[in-house]
Amino acid sequence: FEPLQHFIFFFSHSVALPNFSQPLAIKWLVVKHGDPANATCVACQKDCTENLFDLEKAQGEVRKNGTTLSWTIDRLTEWDMFIMCYYNTDDGDQCCSNLELTVYQPPESVSISFVNHTGPMFEHQQYRLQCSVQDVAPVQNLTVTFYRGTKALGHLQSNSEEKKAVNKTFTLDITASKDDDGALYWCEAKLELGSDGPQPPPVETTEKLTAAVYFLITITDGDTLHLNCSSVGNPSPTYTWTLPSDKASSYNGSVLTIKSVGFKHEGQYTCTVTNTAGTVTKEFDVDVQGEFCHVQIFTRK
């Protein structure tokens, strides 16, 4: 085909382009799946009254007004649609131009979870987070970001060239630390379609996933032990401690202190934190190691 020089695709929101001696830039139309759409092709703007011209399409209607071809569709349901406008010269040559059409579907839903893991994590162990995005297109324009609190942990994209809406899962490996205990993990799915797409880009976020991390504290027999259950709340919370063997404690502070740890102190300690908004608990498993006279403490929520 010869390069098209006097041939324009433009849309209802675009300004008309002047004639150029060089081929015109490709034009894009971004449409949500199921929405109406329209485009106009101006073919052979001068000295072409006897030329053959038309518009090829898979769906929709075409109306002609002189050398202007108007394409409309009430509901765009094809994911990969081909639209070409062309004219044939008296010499048998053909000039043509394609409308670059992107059909998109914002994410239907997004969820976050751990892969093959439930319950608390252990410090220094590796775990895999997965963010599952449902019914999105085109998936190559999707960016998924994992977060811990407000900190972005990674940005992921797909290499798929699939045009229709698909389900896609993205994964990120993390290594648990004691600082992650109580952290909120979540992910965000953003469909970025450029300046011709919806502004701001469609975004879906997941629920927050609260992490519980078991971590080990080793102290020497006879040392002072601190079990920290400090919490932030409004109104300020109250604290209740339950000692091993379900013995209630009269202590009501946020940090339980045992000045000299011994074998009699091993067992499970439960801290209950309460205010008018609700109640949470945190458990401390204290294990006294007799051979080396060490105390091991595992905490969990």
Automatic annotation (TrEMBL):
Superkingdom of source: Eukaryota
Ig-like domain ranges (all copies): 107-189, 201-287
UniProt xrefs under Pfam families: Ig_3
Any one GO molecular function term: integrin binding
Gene3D superfamilies: Immunoglobulins
Swiss-Prot/TrEMBL GO biological process terms: cell adhesion
PANTHER family assigned: INTERCELLULAR ADHESION MOLECULE, INTERCELLULAR ADHESION MOLECULE 5
Protein name: Ig-like domain-containing protein
Naturally occurring in which organism (per UniProt): Amphilophus citrinellus (Midas cichlid)
